[in-house]
Amino acid sequence: MDADERMRPAGSGRGSRILVTGGAGFVGSHVVDALVAAGAEVIVVDDLRPDVHPEPPEHLNPGATLVRAPVHDVDAMQRALRGADAVCHQAAKVGLGVDVGDITDYVRQNDLGTASLLLAMHRTRFRGRLVLASSMVVYGEGRYRCPDHGQVRPGPRVPARLAAGEFEPPCPACGRPLAPEAVPEDAPLEPRSVYAATKVHQEHLCEAFARETGIPFVALRYHNVYGPRMPRDTPYAGVASIFRSALVRGEPPRVFEDGGQLRDFIHVSDVARANALALTVPWEVTGPYNVASGTPRTVGEMALALAEAFDGGRVRPEVTGRVRPGDVRHVFASPERAARVLGFRAEVPFDAGMRELARAPLRGERRAAEVTIGR
User: Fold this and answer.
1) Residues 6+ apart with CB under 8 A from 75
2) Phi/psi at 331 (nearest 5 deg)?
3) Phi-psi bin for 22: left (phi > 0), alpha (psi -120 to 50), beta?
4) Under a CB-based contact definition with an 8 Å cutoff, are residues 337 and 185 in contact?
5) How far is C-alpha 373 from the chain's CA centre?
6) Is the dihedral of CA 191, 194, 195, 197 positive or negative?
7) Nearest to 137 by CA among 225, 227, 59
8) Is pTM beyond 0.85 here?
9) What pLDDT digit, counting tens, does each position of 135-165 carry?
């Protein structure tokens, strides 16, 4: 295959049988929609845990087949894998968590769940393509540059400095301020939370399996995903969902630190399209890919844009100065590798995405409304 042929747009995926774990979830359900629309036969494995799905999800695509089972049920996974051409592994416990007491649940769902899926793939002699939902949290702090020492890796931020409102990580060599830069896929992995550690382990388990079996493996490192079907009122949700839930309650979005943390906010429909490309492009793809817009914004900017879209900004964000354990200051990505190899570029503009999120249904919102009406 020559270079020009490799860079043609993706195939439709029509006729492919694709297994999607966690396909009833926030990102997973949008991936399912994209694959069904492309003509794929989609099998969804999801246990519909009540802490994740407090009500029966209305967004399950009728064009997909649902297998209700946990991903660590190896026998159920073996049955679901029969005839599969590709696997899209979305099932995971997400978010930074509440405290270290969450550690066993993260390991059980993310690490053990992935190991169980791989065991089922081994037993069924699966030889298709594996795409894993990974995360930008694997990088820890992003990439930084010192004017004197060039590219440097700052250590974890010191609690005393954070308490004093000094949020920016200094140069580890001279202590001078650093300039944040976009993170490429070859940056060192340095997880700084339990969740981040499990995402790194998921990548490593899948890489080891791919090396032993020869299957193509792709890790899509999502940045801050937002959009319809985000979970409502849970500390495990993304920051955009937490802010939107506060606005619905008539409360100001509470922004940690000084609001200057840089992140890359990407719409869930773009993330779904990145998955569809990784699963169906007619050339072999392997390795990690950043899934990001390429245009970083501060958390404060995002909170203000969402508040303006929600009610004209009558409820303004509140900057608290608080620090969330395990959080990092700046992390945003270079999306160039995904553009070059997968043909993926984000398409949903930030302002349009925030306007949609301000009105989009969140998961669990119907139940909350019913409880309020019944009081």
Assistant:
1) none
2) -155, 115
3) left
4) yes
5) 33
6) positive
7) 225
8) yes
9) 999 999 999 999 999 999 998 899 999 999 9
